[in-house]
């Protein structure tokens, strides 16, 4: 069937990728009444190091050094996730956070987060460790990907979305598979470096490795803001905390690097000795390795007309795919609606 035989709203929107970006986008499109098919090599529940979404922390933290538009994407994500936190099955939880700053906040710092976060306050002298310049306390959101991805899978299927497990070599292969569709969303993360008709050379792998420490003391988040990159992200529903972090550009080795793990435990102990003992028992430790889909110049979120089709690109989210996810999904929904409008209002 040619694409013109099917009215626009019935043509499935094809999403390449079923990580947090593809799945969050499918949910938002389906809720708006669109028909959606996700095509991906890895699906919720899979545990491959190149499936970044399985390994994220994942905490909502206001990023510093980003544009007003990017802040709004994060703020939108916060709004949606706060709503999801009402449902324990979503894997999203509200937790108390303490953030310590090595330096006083400069221009374009993380301070904008206080316009979004609940219960934000500056810590008093003595409430934060003496080697820091200042500190903040607030409520934030943590997403447990081991629960959230299966939850999204179920939500998408319940709303009528379809998951197809398949690796493709190019976007062209998808056009041939779905000739009736006119909108294709490329949410393939690092895959965009390798797709024959994308080959985005700005994309690069950035290895992350975290320690999971099993403890019931798992309701508080700690974040060190400055040169040293250390966090303790609680996972109340998995009865533990995630310690990190590290960013290793162009490293894709799957094996756990124990020197890094030991350093992360030592840093986490210095940050929150009340939660992380100096020598946590080995039987309570496990390790997480994942490859972030990073991109020189930042992520892509744009629309292109390619022949009769529209291709929306949404990849390259590096270490912040969860923090941007639902904001990106809402933006893609608006882009799809714009194409719909052009199809409905024919001259
Ligand atoms: C250790 C670690 C900690 C992190 N902590 C945080 C955090 O605290 N907060 C935060 O916001 N983010 C965090 N991140 C980053 C976050 O995990 C990523 O930004 C996010 O998961 C990217 O999602 P994505 O959907 O773009 O990509 P992915 O999850 O990698 O999904 C890509 C999808 O595309 C599919 N695909 C690719 N190529 C093809 C192809 N050719 N054919 C078919 N399918 C294809 C894949 O199979 C997969 O389904 C962390 C990452 C790591 C590794």
CATH homologous superfamily placement of the domain at 1-58 and 144-202 and 296-347: NAD(P)-binding Rossmann-like Domain
Please give the largest β-sheet: 9 strands, mixed
CATH architecture label of the domain at 1-58 and 144-202 and 296-347: 3-Layer(aba) Sandwich
Number of alpha- plus pi-helical segments: 6
Number of strands: 15
Rounded to the nearest angstrom, the distance between the terminal CA atoms is 24 Å
Bound molecules: flavin-adenine dinucleotide
Q: Order of helices and strands, N to C?
A: EHEHEEEHEHEEEEEEHEEEH
Mean pLDDT: 96
User: What is the assembly state of the chains in this entry?
Assistant: single chain
Uncertain ranges: none
Percent helix? 25-40%
CATH class of the domain at 1-58 and 144-202 and 296-347: Alpha Beta
Main structural class = alpha/beta
Our estimate of the beta-strand percent is 25-35%
Explain the overall architecture:
With 347 residues, the chain is an alpha/beta fold. It is built from six helices and 15 strands. Strand 10 (230-235) and strand 11 form a beta hairpin. The longest helix is centred in the last third of the chain and has 24 residues, at 321-344. The radius of gyration is 21 Å and the shape is globular. The two termini are 24 Å apart. Bound molecules: flavin-adenine dinucleotide (FAD). Flavin-adenine dinucleotide is lined by residues 16-22, 40-42, 51-53, 55-59, 167-168, 187-189, 191, 195, 208, 210, 288, 290, 292-293, 315, 317-323.
């Amino acid at each position: 069937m040619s694409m013109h035989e099917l009215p626009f709203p019935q043509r499935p929107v094809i999403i390449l990728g079923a990580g947090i970006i593809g799945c969050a986008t499918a949910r938002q499109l389906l809720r708006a009444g669109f028909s959606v098919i996700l095509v991906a090599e890895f699906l919720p529940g899979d545990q491959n190091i190149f499936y970044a979404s399985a390994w994220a922390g994942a905490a909502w933290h206001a990023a510093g050094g980003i544009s007003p538009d990017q802040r709004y994407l994060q703020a939108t994500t916060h709004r949606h996730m706060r709503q999801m936190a009402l449902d324990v099955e979503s894997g999203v939880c509200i937790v108390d956070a303490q953030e310590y700053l090595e330096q006083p906040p400069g221009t374009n710092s993380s301070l904008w987060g206080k316009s979004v976060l609940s219960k934000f306050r500056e810590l008093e002298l003595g409430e934060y460790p003496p080697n820091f310049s200042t500190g903040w306390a607030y409520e934030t959101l943590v997403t447990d990907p081991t629960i959230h991805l299966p939850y999204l899978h179920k939500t998408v299927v319940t709303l009528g979305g379809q998951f197809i497990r398949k690796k493709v070599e190019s976007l062209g292969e998808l056009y041939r598979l779905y000739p009736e569709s006119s909108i294709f969303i490329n949410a393939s993360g690092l895959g965009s470096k390798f797709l024959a008709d994308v080959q985005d050379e700005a994309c690069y792998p950035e290895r992350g490795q975290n320690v999971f420490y099993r403890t019931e003391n798992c309701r508080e988040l700690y974040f060190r803001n400055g040169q040293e990159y250390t966090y303790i992200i609680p996972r109340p529903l998995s009865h533990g905390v995630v310690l990190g972090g590290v960013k290793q550009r162009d490293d894709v080795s799957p094996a756990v690097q124990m020197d890094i793990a030991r350093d992360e435990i030592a840093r986490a102990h210095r940050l929150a000795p009340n939660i992380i003992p100096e020598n946590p028992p080995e039987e309570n430790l496990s390790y997480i390795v994942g490859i972030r889909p990073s991109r020189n110049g930042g992520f892509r979120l744009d629309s292109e007309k390619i022949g009769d089709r529209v291709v929306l690109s949404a990849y390259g989210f590096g270490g912040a795919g969860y923090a941007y996810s639902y904001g990106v999904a809402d933006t893609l929904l608006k882009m799809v609606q714009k194409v719909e409008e052009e199809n409905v209002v024919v001259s």
